[in-house]
């Protein structure tokens, strides 16, 4: 009985400390000079401070319980002034909106891109759209339309991505052996072929991302953008990425790849691969200092 009373007292003490901590956090969020909206893993809004209410022009009771993806949002500056009236069902993905001065926006089921004045670079006609990134001297993104994948630049020009190609991991060497036989002054040539497997076949398979660094500090677990890569024979591949990290919602995309033992080329972008001695794990270095650590499944 004494032990039960001590445990009960300890439980009450912990609950009081948690309650006091929550109150301090609530007071802090309510009094900071920025708008704060909190939503749960299902994107349902659970809290909004008074600054957020003022900026959005909505009362707290209008916000609580609403889905964060509902089309009630608009673009504002740091003073709460409306920059772009909201007419979109969704903007951006992951934790970004504008990237390289453009933002992907969804209207209905289709995606397009706007600039910071709300002008369309491309009107919503795409089935999916990624953010713009600097690739070498170019600024590019990938979009899909009618089950085809395209590369889009900031001039609005689209290039159809090449389909899966024969790669170093699947390429076979054809050695032709000529056998010459001379009979009655005539020469007959026959040929036979031998096939050898590439030494880079070890990259084929599914690789899980254990650590990711795309600017800022490294991310692990459910905080990484990319979940896994699956490299297949024939030069085709697929990868799983989180389009909503907070809700841990993922999507699968297809791409083409090529590997020469050191450089892994995925959809036209080069990554330097450093394998472990047993080739069961790799480090993949990409553009702008991005890095991924992966293990083979």
Q: Helix and strand layout, with pairings?
A:
Blueprint: H1 2-31, E1 37-39, E2 45-48, H2 50-56, H3 60-63, E3 75-76, E4 82-84, E5 90-91, E6 98-99, E7 102-107, E8 110-114, E9 120-126, E10 128-129, E11 133-135, E12 138-145, E13 148-153, E14 158-160, E15 175-176, E16 179-183, E17 186-190, E18 193-194, E19 205-213, E20 219-220, E21 226-231, E22 236-244, E23 249-259, E24 263-266, E25 269-275, E26 281-285, E27 291-296
Antiparallel strand pairs: 1-2, 3-4, 5-7, 6-7, 7-8, 8-9, 10-12, 11-12, 12-13, 13-14, 15-18, 16-17, 19-20, 19-21, 19-27, 21-22, 22-23, 23-24, 24-25, 25-26, 26-27
Compose a concise summary of this entry.
The protein is built from three helices and 27 strands.
Structural write-up:
This protein is mainly β and 297 residues long. The chain has a domain at 201-296: Lipocalin, CATH 2.40.128. Helices cover 14% and strands 43% of the residues. It has helices at residues 2-31, 50-56, 60-63, and strands at 37-39, 45-48, 75-76, 82-84, 90-91, 98-99, 102-107, 110-114, 120-126, 128-129, 133-135, 138-145, 148-153, 158-160, 175-176, 179-183, 186-190, 193-194, 205-213, 219-220, 226-231, 236-244, 249-259, 263-266, 269-275, 281-285, 291-296. The strands form 7 sheets. Strands 19-21-22-23-24-25-26-27 form an 8-stranded antiparallel β-barrel. Strands 5, 6, 7, 8 and 9 form a 5-stranded antiparallel β-sheet that branches. The longest helix is centred in the N-terminal third of the chain and has 30 residues, at 2-31. The protein is flat and about 65 Å long. It starts with a helix and ends with a strand.
């Amino acid at each position: 009985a004494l032990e039960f009373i001590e445990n009960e007292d300890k439980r009450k003490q912990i609950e009081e400390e948690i309650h006091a901590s929550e109150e301090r956090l609530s007071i802090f969020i309510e009094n900071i000079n920025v708008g704060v909206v909190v939503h749960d893993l299902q994107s349902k809004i659970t809290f909004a401070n008074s600054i957020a209410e003022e900026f959005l022009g909505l009362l707290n009771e209008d916000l609580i319980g609403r889905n964060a993806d509902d089309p009630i949002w608009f673009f504002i500056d740091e003073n709460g002034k409306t920059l772009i009236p909201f007419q979109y069902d969704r903007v951006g993905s992951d934790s970004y909106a504008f990237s390289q001065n453009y933002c992907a926006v969804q209207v209905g089921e289709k995606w397009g891109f706007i600039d910071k004045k709300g002008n369309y670079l491309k009107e919503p006609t795409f089935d999916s759209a990624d953010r713009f990134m600097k690739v070498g001297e170019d600024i590019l993104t990938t979009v899909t339309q009618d089950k085809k994948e395209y590369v889009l630049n900031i001039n609005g020009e689209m290039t159809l991505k090449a389909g899966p190609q024969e790669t170093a991991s699947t390429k076979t060497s054809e050695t032709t052996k000529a056998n010459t036989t001379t009979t009655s002054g005539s020469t007959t040539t026959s040929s036979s072929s031998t096939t050898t497997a590439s030494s880079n076949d070890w990259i084929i398979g599914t690789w899980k991302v254990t650590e990711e660094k795309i600017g800022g500090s490294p991310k692990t677990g459910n905080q990484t953008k990319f979940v896994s890569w699956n490299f297949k024979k024939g030069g085709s591949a697929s990868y799983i990425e989180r389009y909503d990290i907070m809700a841990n919602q993922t999507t699968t995309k297809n791409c083409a790849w090529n590997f020469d033992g050191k450089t892994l080329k995925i959809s036209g972008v080069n990554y330097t691969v450093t394998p472990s001695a047993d080739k069961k794990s790799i480090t993949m270095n990409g553009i702008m200092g991005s890095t991924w650590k992966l293990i083979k499944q």
